[in-house]
Amino acid sequence: xxxxxxxxxxxxxxxxxxxxxxxxxxxxxxxxxxxxxxxxxxxxxxxxxxxxxxxxxxxxxxxxxxxxxxxxxxxxxxxxxxxxxxxxxxxxxxxxxxxxxxxxxxxxxxxxxxxxxxxxxxxxxxxxxxxxxxxxxxxxxxxxxxxxxxxxxxxxxxxxxxxxxxxxxxxxxxxxxxxxxx
Length: 182
Fold this sequence. Notes:
The protein has 182 residues and is an alpha+beta fold. It contains 4 helices and 11 strands; from the N terminus they run ββαββββββαββαβα. The protein starts with 5 loop residues before the first strand and ends in a 7-residue tail after the last helix.
């Protein structure tokens, strides 16, 4: 942390979490932080003098911060919190996968299910056979509850000029016409 700053991890109920427990990252800086012109958003993202920008992470015993994902990207399936970055980190290691995005889509029974969208390396053909091969490969590297239910293919994943993936462009079409997101 910066001099004069402090980092804490809190759960959804506003309780500070011990080292090694994943939760929402909150920071306290020497300067005040607020969302310009949006006091409601500022208040909703504060606990005491600490604020969050929506990162999920944990502190180790020595106070080092390990970021896991963005809160807005977290998938809630059957009551389990699933972090897409962890799944993306595995799928990117498949020889056919050049780029990947993982996010939640509606599921009537589970709330959300895991969807992966994959950009392939040259020389690989998208299709059900390759999707099945990638899922079979992934099943040997992650728990069943983290395994995508399906894979779609894209020629190129949408990214901002700075390289940041624009997941909402991939996720939003699946949520059209759905009353609420989880």
